[in-house]
Structure formats: structure tokens, C-alpha cells
Amino acid sequence: MNEQSKSQDKEVKGFIFAILDMITYGLLPVFSNYFVKTIDPLLFGGLTTLIGSTPLLLKLKLKGQEKDLFSFRFTKPLLGIAILATVGSFFFFVGTKYTSGINTGLLIQLEPFYAIVLSAIFLGEVIKKNQIMATLTMVLGAVVLVYKGIDRLNIGDIFIVFAPMFFQASHMIAKKIMDKVSDTDVIPAARLLYSGFLLTALAFIVRPSSFQQLFSLQNVISIIIFAFIFRALDFYLWYQAIKRISVSRAAAVIPLAAAISFIGSIFFLKEIPNAKQYLGLSLIMGGLIWFSIIHLKENKKDSN
């Protein structure tokens, strides 16, 4: 196999991993919404995140590269990532309990909006006109979903709107140390491990009685399955994708996640979309597709 064939094979595999991850990521809001209706959201979010870290921790241990997790050199950035991820997870899991699966799946797609805003503020990146227009389209879609009058705002929708802001802020810190840690898996492992501990501790402080839900075998099985599929597998697929293709190219398939969330909510949660949700879907999907095309074009220019 020549170099060109190897490169093409690597790229194809990268896109396959990205697509599989978007399917997984798209179903994350659906099953989160389903499980937090019967399990305390903080307990569920904390334990699934904590358990989801175990495959990555095992992988680092087998490679002998777990020392950075506890290195004083990376204490501040890893703790910062964990705290931001904890706040984001708090908003996400509590928020989805009080809104629909459709709204959760669509509103969580606002990450690109926060990504360019935070990059401009903290990294000094220049925001182009077409990026602004694409993200404003997504924001308009979010407004359509959320706004029902000042006196009728849903706290769950508001929480979900803010969740991706904290996730993206954690990515800003991660970018600064990604080339310094011994293995890139250190970052997601630390994020899941430490934020899992923090969220679980918060669940115990806020509602100690929620731990009685762990006496249910069905709840325990649900938590474990969710942890390995929507925490561990999600991170694994994404990092396998960006190992083979650039982040901007992998991000081109993000619109698939929004579509999967929407369809998954209809089939698994038996939700019936209303006109506002269809309009919100159209605007957010349109903005995501527009944003993806922008990144693909920029990536093509850079490669030339």
C-alpha cells in the first residue's frame, strides 16, 4: 500500500469513527432525558461520568502513562477542566429532567457558538462574517425553542442552553496542555474521573437519600450501561476520529448528532414535535451545516 492509499484509508477510518461518535453523541440527550426521569440527575450524572473514566484509566495504566493525572504540574489545568465540566454536567443532567428530549438534543448543539465566542475572547482568534451568520442562525433556533414569554421560560431549557458554554470553556484549557501531557487520553480521563467525583459528591450533599436508588438492580445496570456507551465509548470514538482527521473535518458530521437526537426522541421517548421544534430544528441544523461547510472549506485551503 503506497502513502496516498494509506492516507486515504486513514481518512476514511477517521470519518467512520466520527460518524459513529455522532450517532452515540446524538443519542446521549435522548437516554439522559429518559433515565433522569426516574434516577436523581446529579447521582446519575456523577456515577455515569465516574464509571465512564475506568476504561481510559485502565488504558493509561497499561501504557504506564497515568502519572500525569496526579502530577503537580498539571493539577491546576486538570482541576479547572474538571470543575468546568462538573458545572456543565450539572446544567445538562438537571436541565434535561425538566425539558423534553427534543429540546435537550437541539439546544446542546450550541457548542459551536460558544466555541467561536470563547476562542475570540481568550485565544484572540478572528471571527469571520460567515461564522457569525452561521452561529447566529443556531442561536435564533435556540430562541425559537426556548422563548415562550418571559413568564413561561422553562428552567430546564435555560440550563441546557448554558451547559455547552462550560464544556467549551473546559476545551479552552485542554487545548493549552494537549501537547504537554504524555498521552492525550490523560485529559478525557481526568475530566471524567474528577468531574465524576465532584458531581457524585454534590449529589450526596444536595440529596443524600438519592443513594437509596442504588438498591435497585435496574438502576445500577442502567448507570453502568450508560457509562460505558455514552461516556467511555463516546470519548473513545471522538479521539480515534481526531487522531486520523483534523478536528474541523470531524466536526463536519456534527449535524448528524442533532438529527439523531431529534429522531431518537420521537422513537425512544415517544415525543411528538410541535411546529416550534420543527422550526428550531431547521434553524439549528441549517446553522450547523453552514458552520461545517465553512470549516471544510478552510481545511481544504490549509491543506493546499
Task: Figure out the total of helices.
Answer: 13
For the secondary structure, the number of strands is: 0
Structural classification: mainly alpha
Counting copies of identical and different chains, the oligomeric state is single chain
Give the SSE order as H and E letters. HHHHHHHHHHHHH
State the helicity in percent bands. over 70%
Distance between the termini: 24 Å
Quick one: overall form?
A: globular
Low-confidence spans: pLDDT under 50, at least 5 residues? none
The gyration radius over C-alpha positions equals 19 Å
How much beta, percentage-wise? under 5%
- Whole-number count of domains: 1
Mean pLDDT: 88
Sheet with most strands: none
Brief write-up:
With 304 residues, the protein is an all-alpha fold. The chain has one domain. The protein has 13 helices and no strands.
Features:
0% strand, globular, mainly alpha
Describe the protein in words.
The model has no long low-confidence stretch (mean pLDDT 88). The protein is mostly helical and 304 residues long. The protein is globular, with a radius of gyration of 19 Å. The chain has one domain. Helix 2 packs across helix 10 (217-244). The chain has helices at residues 3-35, 41-52, 54-63, 75-97, 101-107, 111-122, 129-146, 155-177, 186-206, 217-244, 247-250, 254-268, 275-303. The chain is built from 13 helices and no strands. It is 77% helix and 0% strand.
Describe the SSE topology:
Elements: H1 3-35, H2 41-52, H3 54-63, H4 75-97, H5 101-107, H6 111-122, H7 129-146, H8 155-177, H9 186-206, H10 217-244, H11 247-250, H12 254-268, H13 275-303
Helix pairs in contact: 1-5, 1-10, 1-12, 2-4, 2-9, 2-10, 3-9, 4-8, 4-9, 5-12, 5-13, 6-8, 7-13, 12-13
